[in-house]
## 1
Amino acid sequence: MNIFRLAGDMTHLMSVLVLLLKIHTIKSCAGISLKTQELYALVFATRYLDIFTDFISVYNTIMKLIFLGSSFSIVWYMRRHKLVRRSYDKEQDTFRHFFLVLPCLLLALVMNEKFTFKEVMWAFSLYLEAVAILPQLVLLQRTKNIDNLTGQYVFLLGAYRAFYIFNWIYRYFTEPHYVHWITWISGLVQTLLYADFFYYYFNSWKNNVKLHLPA
Amino acid sequence: SSTEKVHDEL
């Protein structure tokens, strides 16, 4: 465990917990894409199939349980909680899961480290994670008005991506057999998707104005 | 590290 990996995990954890806490406290999910949240729940469910078969560390197991629990809680709040679901921008959040899930599944069947159920699902989760933010970015574009917490949520996710890339670079040079092409390429694609958002986020922060995305 | 690859990242 290096400092970049830890910082990446912590910003990832914070992004999910900030969102869950926001929804729980103000009983609103305005500006949050349910499609993206459902895709993340699917990402964690398919990636952590090894949770009971491969023990890595107590840290690893606990983090997996927190990610699974918090992502499914967010989906539950947005779909089932009678106050929260009323604030959901259903008409604006029109991205189809199918268009992201199917190509990722096909890609995972072709490109994986080993053709086993667990490895195909692992690859699928990496590909899906790379693009799962798209419905959220589309929703941000449409609603224009981005409150601080939604902005912070996407910012923390972007920070997590950046730290993970530093972690891979660090591990590449410090661990002799550390080569994971699938992880790196899908991770890089995911980070690039945030670059555009970051540009506007930093501009609004620098000029101390409310975040607005262009049409 | 072992030869059997395990995914140790989240």
## 2
Amino acid sequence: EDSEEFERRYFYFQNATKRHVSLNSFSSELQSAQYGINQFSDLSQEEFRDVYLRAVFHRAPPFSGLTAPK
Amino acid sequence: LPAKLDWRDKAVVAPVQDQGACGSCWAFSVVGAIQSVRAIGGSQLVQLSVQQLIDCSFQNAGCSGGSPSSALRWLEQTRLKLATQSEYPYQAATGICRFFSPSHGVVAVRNFTAHDFSGQEEAMMAELLQRGPLVAVVDAVSWQDYLGGIIQHHCSSHYSNHAVLVVGYDTTGNIPYWIVQNSWGTTWGNQGYVYIKMGGNICGIADSVAAVFL
């Protein structure tokens, strides 16, 4: 618990709890999304992005009606 | 269009997977769609190899990321038949492509479409009904903190970075929403699923949507 790694993770965790307060402030209705502690709470936002958000986006043409496959 | 559509009710959606610390969402979404479309066609639901796509789809970067469109184009061009998950299991790491004989494997992709449905989510509902589960690329930055419920705010549609599988929608309640399967395990979100409000291209859910033909 005295390790540098622990300190860093704890810092990210505290940041996450601050984000949750902000995100939940819009959750007024019963079905609204809830934000809180999960398996990603001790990751920084950069770490999360670097590991889990790795899809490459290719712009697709606008949909212009259902068509049969080629 | 029916007020509610959930392909899980037809037993054609495989269980939620966990990609682990590997940027392989693009492969999970593509394989998820292929599995479901095959099952909708009358075959038994079989889990197919995500690892094969990670290792062999060379235009993509394995665990360092990839594009569902590129993966689908590669599958269409090579006519590669995906092996089953059990014979080519997931490793959460990029490996060396294992080759099988051309006749080996379960199913090949014949064709696919990719469209921008922003402003046309009703047409996307029809596409989901007609084609089966759809691959979508979304902005999932705020999903780091998601626990459950319907996402209506804090989700931009300009920086898409994560691939998922749209398996249904529900318009029967106050807030119509898309039912989306993620690949971060069942402890995340609603047993591995995320619900996204329909109608406003929330999280960019309609920006890049692919359907698969087998």
